[in-house]
Amino acid sequence: MNCFDCDRRELTVAAVAVCSVCGAGVCATHVRTEAEQVREPANPGEVMHDRSARRLTCSTCRAAEEAV
Ligand SMILES: [Zn+2]
Ligand SMILES: [Zn+2]
Predict the structure, then answer these.
(1) Which residue among 6, 7, 25, 39 has the highest number of C-beta atoms inside a 10 angstrom radius?
(2) pLDDT digits over 30-68, tens only?
(3) Do 6 and 27 meet the contact criterion of CB atoms below 8 Å apart?
């Protein structure tokens, strides 16, 4: 798979990740990494998880989320 953002600029760059929002392939330049706190529903008797998950998005989806 190639980077979608690069492809739109008529470049061919191998993707290193897949956007978790739109599913586009993203190269190292365009990938956006963020740690997301995993919050599980508070069900009685279940162990609460408090850890960070890695979330990879493309620059387009990252910009869209920041604009909200
Ligand atoms: Zn790219
Ligand atoms: Zn995306």
Answers:
(1) 25
(2) 999 987 666 666 666 665 566 678 889 999 999 998 886
(3) yes
- Ligand minimally distant from the alpha carbon of residue 57: 2
Say if residue 25 is exposed, middle or buried (CB neighbours under 10 Å; 0-12, 13-18, 19+): buried
- In this prediction the pTM is 0.71
Distance 52 CA to ligand 2 centre (A): 20
Q: Which helix (H) or strand (E) holds 56?
A: strand 52-58
Measured in Å, residue 58 CA sits from the centre of ligand 2 at: 4
